Amino acid sequence: MKNALSTTLRTALLTASLVLAASTSAKADTLVIDLTDQTNSNTQDYPSVRVTLDDTRNPGAITVKVDVVPGPTGYIGDLRGVYLNLPGISGLSINPFAGGPLTAISTNGDFGNFSNSADLRGIRQAFNVGAEIGRQGIAGGDDFQTVTFTISGPNLDLSDFTSQSVGVRMMSVGSPMGDRGLSSKTLGTAPSTVTVSNPPVVPPIDPIEDIGGDDPVSVPEPTTLAGLGLVAAALGVSRYRKTQKRV
Predict the structure, then answer these.
(1) Scanning 25, 81, 232, 245, which has the fewest C-beta atoms within 10 Å of its C-beta?
(2) According to the 3-state scheme, what is the secondary structure of the chain?
(3) What average pLDDT does range 115-129 have in this prediction?
(4) Of 26 and 98, which is predicted with more confidence?
(5) Domain spans of the chain?
(6) Residue 56 confidence (pLDDT)
């Protein structure tokens, strides 16, 4: 019985340790791109744009989160168009997720149905994927500083975005409490490598004192639930105690 109890305890503790380690999974693999104005002068007060790509928030798709970053004096802008470059990749689809509404979408490089106020003409950069956000002007609350959407496609991976250009068009740029009559065409380049945040660390498992016997101990798969392992341990202890009472 001591052999059985030892085996049960070892298996349960191994299971709990492995599953707890697995549950501390890595945060999203990400690409963060910072965009700055490309077509204006005296842009020290202009807002910038941050685009964050991750592959875990929506399994099977790349999540694109676009945020206006206020300038040093508080200038903001209304997001109007987001553009990405994914050369050689077809069969893509874009779906809205949160923030500003997507009023036009293209995954083939044809942006003819986009409004003039959403285009990036003049920055001399090619794109083949894009989305228009909202409508021109900020009347009626059509004023968006954030938008999130997903891009999906066969075997699409974050590495497809590395070292590629990203562009964003803003209109109604200016102070939130003043005139917002400026516009901005911004551009940035994705990093060459994907950032993996907080990868899981499997803690060392302390040896368990042998209660007797040399029964082999099988190591469970990490996908086994830790709770089941602990239940098994409790049952094993209970059975052991009952057996001892009978002896």
Answers:
(1) 245
(2) CHHHHHHHHHHHHHHHHHHHHHHCCCCCEEEEEEEEECCCCCCCCCCEEEEEEECCCCCCCEEEEEEEECCCCCCEEEEEEEEECCCCCCCCEEEEEEECCEEEEECCCCCCCCCHHHCCCCCCCCCCEEEEECCCCCHHHCCCCEEEEEEECCCCCHHHHCCCEEEEEEEEEECCCCCCCEEEEEEEECCCCCEECCCCCCCCCCCCCCCCCCCCCCCCCCCCCHHHHHHHHHHHHHHHHHHHHHC
(3) 94
(4) 98
(5) 1-26+222-247, 29-195
(6) 84
Enter the tokens of residue 124.
Answer: 């001399």
